[in-house]
Design brief:
By secondary structure, this protein is mostly helical. Helix content is 74%, strand content 1%. The chain has 25 helices and two strands. It has a two-stranded antiparallel ribbon. The longest helix is centred in the first third of the chain and has 41 residues.
Length: 559
């Protein structure tokens, strides 16, 4: 029998809940606005002259050459994407300060995208939710504060490096991927799923072109779209479009321009092989000695290998000296080995400047080490992963208490060679930039980034919770997936999404552990925006899942 009174009561309850949700959202967006305004003040109270570092010229030269009428000069094998963005900023604003301001504005957009991703992730948690809406949104605001007020994030935005755009680009890709999961499996909106899936796939590859160091993170970034191809609920035509359209966009907008521009860059063929050679120089030196002692057949003369082996051994000793600032986990400094005065310079002379021959030699010996020393390579990879995962405080949240700007302007101003300075002085905006850096380096009244006590405590909390929360989330996922009945079915999605978000950082660390080294601070610190969201969601997952489990057991006991 229909009961009008009960129906009216239920309708009134839904209206009341809706009003409460709207009220909470209103307060949350107001507080978010205030947080972003405060974050904006922290950024724009600083002089907008960007800070240089030894790699700045690599990103500045291509666009500067184009603006001087010499054509876009692809440099040192670096992708064209970030240098092209600097060129566009210089063209539109006529000043590198405009580029810096634009990077800070994009960083603020990252805070908005992070809160949107946090808000949308709520849909994956089943009802009834035990954590109140106001508390959930409040936790999201703390996540935004951690990301937006990070001195490292602000410092990256103040430099001419691709890290200045990486955080916002990563958060946009995460938001698109979350929307794809929601539209594909929760709300069943096929058109929205197709649009967000194509966009998420394209942006994941774009991030790789922006910062190739993220490497293997492209795989977990595309896991939802890859799994969707093997699951029902999407037509075969849409699955074909989901694969072919982003592939076409990547080829047209990223691969072809990169291929075209690399043709004029002789260093593009040797950049990666030289990096692999110098990072694994100790293992390669050992392999050369083994080859000489065993008489193994080689495509290079034995006298040549003996000479290069001796030179490499001497240079390794020099790169291991305290004055060379060796990497702690490697025991030597690969950057020293890569200089013209060390082994790479000697290899260039040996191969008479033939880039292809040099690249082939470096690649040959790297692959030979992988083949004949798998235990040593595995040990190197595990040792590198231990730098990130082998301590309770997550290195992604490692941050100085303050930055002395005058010191950085003075120190980095000397990173340019005389030839680079001459070229920069030939273009008025970059000439003004050098003058501004020189002026700021002499000022003692510059404001400095100084983290507040509140932020340092919040940052320390996130750093401490990253590893244990990740482990707990994985254990919960395995428990939930193995559970039978409604409990496992209800909690599968929030657990999967939370653990999946952790794999972004895992992909970056695997890339660096295999091909480079996690001793470089910025490689660890750039991961903050990749791990701050899953840490917050882990806290919600742990509370919701465990509380729901207790309630579920009680209901079975009393039934």
């Amino acid at each position: 029998m229909h009961c009008p009174g009960r129906s009216r009561a239920a309708s009134y309850g839904r209206m009341r809940a809706l009003r409460g949700t709207v009220k909470h959202l209103g307060w949350a967006w107001l507080l978010l606005f205030l947080i972003l305004v405060s974050s904006c003040y922290e950024r724009f109270r600083l002089p907008l002259t960007p800070i240089s570092d030894p790699d700045t010229w690599t990103y500045l030269k291509p666009g500067l050459s184009q603006l001087l009428g010499q054509g876009f000069r692809h440099t040192l094998g670096q992708s064209f994407l970030y240098p092209a963005s600097i060129e566009l900023g210089l063209f539109l604003g006529g000043d590198l300060r405009f580029v810096c301001a634009l990077q800070h504005a994009i960083g603020l957009i990252g805070g908005l995208l992070l809160f949107l991703a946090w808000s949308r992730a709520r849909v994956f948690f089943p009802k009834p939710r035990r954590l109140p809406e106001a508390v959930y949104l409040g936790l999201g605001l703390f996540v935004v504060i951690e990301q937006q007020f990070s001195p490292i994030a602000i410092f990256f935005e103040h430099t001419l490096r691709p890290e200045s755009l990486l955080a916002t680009g990563a958060l946009l890709q995460v938001l698109l991927a979350l929307e794809f999961i929601r539209a594909r499996w929760v709300t069943r909106a096929p058109r929205l799923a197709l649009a967000t899936g194509v966009s998420a796939t394209f942006f994941s590859v774009l991030l790789f072109f922006l910062k190739p160091a993220i490497g293997l993170a492209v795989i977990p970034a595309n896991l939802p779209m890859l799994l969707s191809l093997f699951r029902p609920g999407m037509s075969a035509g849409r699955k074909v479009v989901l694969v072919l359209l982003p592939l076409f966009l990547v080829l047209l907008l990223l691969v072809l321009p990169e291929w075209w521009l690399r043709r004029s860059d002789p260093d593009s063929a040797v950049f990666v092989p030289e990096t692999l050679f110098t990072i694994h120089a100790d293992l390669i030196e050992r392999q050369m000695n083994d080859d000489l002692s065993t008489g193994a057949p080689l495509p290079y003369p034995r006298a040549c290998i003996a000479e290069l082996s001796g030179s490499l051994a001497r240079e390794l000793k020099l790169s291991a000296a305290p004055s060379a600032r060796p990497y702690p986990s490697l025991g030597f400094n690969p950057d020293y080995l890569k200089s013209d005065n060390s082994i790479v310079g000697q290899l260039q002379q040996h191969f008479a400047g033939n880039s292809n021959a040099l690249a082939a030699f470096c690649t040959f010996y790297y692959l030979r080490v992988v083949k004949h020393q798998p235990a040593a390579i595995t040990h190197k990879v595990l040792r590198q992963l231990g730098i990130f995962y082998g301590q309770w405080r997550c290195p992604a949240f490692q941050t100085p208490k303050k930055y002395l700007l005058a010191f950085h302007y003075e120190r980095r101003l000397h990173s340019y060679t005389d030839l680079e300075r001459a070229k920069m002085n030939s273009y008025p905006p970059t000439r003004a930039y050098l003058a501004s850096c020189a002026s700021l380096s002499r000022r003692s009244d510059l404001p400095s980034w100084k983290a507040t006590v509140f932020y340092l405590r919040l940052n320390g909390t996130f750093a401490f919770l990253c590893l244990p929360f990740g482990v707990i989330a994985l254990v919960l996922l395995l428990t939930i997936v193995s559970s039978q009945g409604r409990y496992g079915a209800h909690w599968k999605w929030p657990a999967l999404v939370t653990v999946w978000l952790y794999t972004y950082s895992l992909g970056i660390n695997l890339t660096l552990a295999i091909f480079h080294s996690l001793d470089v601070n910025r490689y660890r610190q750039l991961q903050l925006s990749f791990v701050v969201l899953p840490i917050g969601l882990s806290a919600v997952l742990i509370f919701e899942a465990l509380f729901s489990r207790v309630r579920w057991k009680k209901s079975l006991t009393t039934a």
